Amino acid sequence: MPNTQFTRAIFPGTFDPITNGHLDLIERGARIFDELIVSVLRNPDKNPLFTLKERIEMLREATAEHENVKVDAFDGLLVDFARECGAAAILRGIRAISDYEYELQMALMNRRLAPEVETVFMMPAGRYTFVSSRLLKEVYLLGGKIDDLVPAVVLDRLRAKVAVP
Ligand code: PNS
Predict the structure, then answer these.
(1) 14 lines ligand 1 (CB under 6 A)
(2) Residues contacting 75, CB < 8 A, separation 6+
């Protein structure tokens, strides 16, 4: 029997800023879920380079062509936000074994808090397995080239925010 149920998932993160690795996962998620809500943590503790508003604007622009992708902000517990949205799943990316331990801990804690919300792991394309927002900012700020690793809007915003040698 065909599954006619509408399935919504959330893709949470700090997105400071969105990378092509994130975008790759968003595209994969948008293909298997009916709706994907990219959920940006306010996260003042992490002292982000970009404000919440800037992170959301970049995400909206980078995902504009995907009609079933929405962007929203959250604070507090992720599972509370998932429930508020009516999401059946939390999508997370795993790039390498090193991601696995932290992701497993989070997934199992989230399951304990909200057993009805399933965590789904996906792998980005191999060419993005080394890409992280933290590393890209570091490379950019030290004058390295990151053009093919972030959406154009991110490069424009980085250039506007920080001039590098
Ligand atoms: O992009 P990140 O920084 O790896 O994303 C981490 C995120 C936002 C998924 C995680 O920090 C989170 O879910 N924070 C919300 C608070 C929460 O629910 N904490 C308990 C997680 S088990």
Answers:
(1) yes
(2) 41, 42
Per the annotation, the verdict on 159 as an active-site residue is no
Q: What is the pLDDT of residue 43?
A: 73
- pLDDT band of 40, cuts 50, 70, 90: very high
Cβ atoms of 138 and 21 within 8 Å: the answer is: no
| CATH number of the domain to which 94 belongs | 3.40.50.620
Give the separation between CA 36 and CA 10, rounded to whole angstroms: 5
Answer yes or no: is 3 within a domain.
no
Mean pLDDT score, 29-46? 92
Nearest CA owner, ligand 1 atom 8? 13
**29 touches ligand 1 (CB under 6 Å):** no
Range 3-21 average pLDDT: 95
Q: Give the total number of structural domains in the chain.
A: 1
What is the per-residue pLDDT for 2? Answer: 73
Query: In which domain, by residue range, is 146 found?
Result: 8-161
**Does the annotation count 46 as an active-site position?**
yes
